């Protein structure tokens, strides 16, 4: 399976026990829906390798404690530390209304209530303190904050996101 067909679930951050259990820092708002998984894809080198799970349970708030079938000692667990975990996109629960997954809105047109069509979502930058839509309009790039006060409507059928950009923001980029 290719990474493009998967979503990032989290990262192995440490060992939990001498029996090879590991702790995963999850990248999700709903950690409990991943509590009873049967398998995950672990990024090793350039490959996604399926790992089957004997036992999987929440540990504290956003950590998942996993006992893999193939990992039963500390040296094997050590090799997984820092590895990223993925699941197929088909396992994502569908979102409705104004909630969306970042990967699903790539290519959507941003419609501002004052300026109309201000461009197409090229990507989402989630590395800053504020997540941003990276929008392209011709040869210009705009950065629109992702937040409930700005997003009025996500229209999946027409692939558009209706926003009320902060005053002066669109002029700053396109003016």
UniProtKB/TrEMBL annotation:
Gene3D superfamilies: PRC-barrel domain (2.30.30.240), RimM (2.40.30.60). It is found in: Cytoplasm. The keyword rRNA processing applies. Residues 9-88 form the RimM N-terminal domain. GO terms for biological process: ribosomal small subunit biogenesis; rRNA processing. One of its GO terms (cellular component) is ribosome. GO terms for molecular function: ribosome binding. It comes from the Bacteria. Its main location: cytoplasm. Residues 103-169 form the Ribosome maturation factor RimM PRC barrel domain. SUPFAM superfamilies: PRC-barrel domain (SSF50346), Translation proteins (SSF50447). Signal peptide: none annotated. Keywords: Chaperone, Cytoplasm, Ribosome biogenesis, rRNA processing. An accessory protein needed during the final step in the assembly of 30S ribosomal subunit, possibly for assembly of the head region. Essential for efficient processing of 16S rRNA. May be needed both before and after RbfA during the maturation of 16S rRNA. It has affinity for free ribosomal 30S subunits but not for 70S ribosomes. The PRC barrel domain binds ribosomal protein uS19. Binds ribosomal protein uS19. Belongs to the RimM family. HAMAP family: Ribosome_mat_RimM. This is Ribosome maturation factor RimM. It comes from Flagellimonas lutimaris. The lineage of its organism: Bacteria, Pseudomonadati, Bacteroidota, Flavobacteriia, Flavobacteriales. The gene is rimM.
